[in-house]
Write a structure and sequence with these properties.
Layout: H1 5-24, H2 28-49, H3 56-91
Helix pairs in contact: 1-2, 1-3
Amino acid sequence: MPLMLIDYYKAIEDSSAKMLEAAKAEDWDGVMRFEGACAVLIEQLRERARSEELDTHARAEKSKIMRRILHNDAQIRYLAEPWLTHCEHKLEGQPAFLH
């Protein structure tokens, strides 16, 4: 059975929840893995949204999903702040490289 548009939102929410669990466990590699999965799903969602629209019920569900994703994102950022600060301190004084 092919995925419906709302299924992409649900999959992104699931990956977002897994990112949060990884952040709580201070598994930053895991956070990045699930972030990559989110990026792929978002691109697939964008492609699918070109040819499919959500009905009224699905739009309401999408709104609830998006709020939960944003809540997860805020918690991840809060948990990541000390780690990011640590990384910034380690990089201070290092030469900058552009790729």
